[in-house]
Amino acid sequence: MVGGRVTKYYLYLMGLLWLSGLQANLTVDRFFEHLGQKTDKLVFYFHGMPKLEHTVAPLHDEPEHYRAERFIFHKLHFANDQVRKLLLLNSKGYYHNGHHQCYKLKFKQLEDGLELILIYDLRQVQCVEYHSFKAISGFDGFLIQINHKLVGSQELVALQNQEKQPPLNLTNQNKLAIKNRLALEKYKLNHEITIGLDYGHGGTDQGAMGLSAQPEKIITRQVGFKLKKLLVDLGYNIIETCPDDLKMDLDERTYLINFANKPVDLLISIHANYAANSGAMGLETFFSDQQLFKTVVQSCLMDQCQRNSSGETSKKLANIVHETVLELVNPKIGGQVIGNYNLKDRKVRCSAAQILLGVECPAILIELGYLSNLQEAKKLNEPAYQEFLAQGIAQGVVNFLAAYSSTFD
Fold first, then answer.
1. What is the pTM of this model?
2. What is the pLDDT of residues 358-405, one digit of tens each?
3. Rounded CA gap, 249 and 243, in Å?
4. DSSP of 224-280
5. 185-291+308-408 sits in which CATH class?
């Protein structure tokens, strides 16, 4: 009996040590900064979600219209040297991209975790939100969403007059925001639809390969160029994130869409899939929505946040494009598929993919098929099949705009 208790106690201690070992191995692996005219999104990917402490930190060396919020991520360390070099500066250094001055980040590696201080200008920031999410890859994500006040807003002008301060120095971001806002008034009167096209991967980033004769980065461009021609012929303006075979970070792609010369009405990101199961095949279409994100911390300004999510419109776009592609590739008579391709329906799904998370317009990501499946890999390399896919996407866009044209008036 005593021996049994000792064994149970020993197993209990071993369990605690195992759990503490897991906690000690929590790491931050990737970081994205999606810049926008309305919102900036800072996204961190963790191997395991660390325990989090949040406080409003006092500021001794900043103007009074700045606020600082301090986070301590317990048992968290850097796993990626590039991320470490990017974020972990000297104790007096700050990370910010020079895009604008409404916020900056300060990092410090503690003995038992990682400290992050977010400092932002109350004159330019409407509110800040903090969310966690689960990525398809298995990573735990942490999102800091910084919602802007546009320079020139009545509230901001009143605040400046009250403080009797000189006007804010207009940064490139705010100048562009005002310029685009003024252009938008004319844009509404004579609206031409602008569609963003994002071809997955490029350069040294080959994407999936599997059993395909060509890597994903080539197939996405082959289908994408066919789609571009169809949309241009229909009279739409087209903006491409990366038409050349180059490696481009995901947050660079979202920047090009959010700060395009013409406001982008919707984005289509084209990919091909891969699975360990060689039998997996079919079409999947993804959109992003607020339901993916769980509030982690209630910021002091949380109650001032105004929801402006494009998730519902993205879902409508995803459903219509997805169904239209299936209908074109799988023509039916009497409920029976009569075509040669028989593209499987793997449904429309919600995802926190970076390209969807980072853009400010309605957006979808289409996985055209599985390069890990021999039958589908062969089809995806056929120009005729690629043309079918491009036609289906283009017709889906036309159907969506016909059904929801008032959204863009």
1. 0.82
2. 999 999 999 999 999 999 999 999 999 999 999 999 999 999 999 987
3. 14
4. HHHHHHHHHHTT-EEEES--SS----HHHHHHHHHT-SS---EEEEEEEE--SSTT-
5. alpha beta
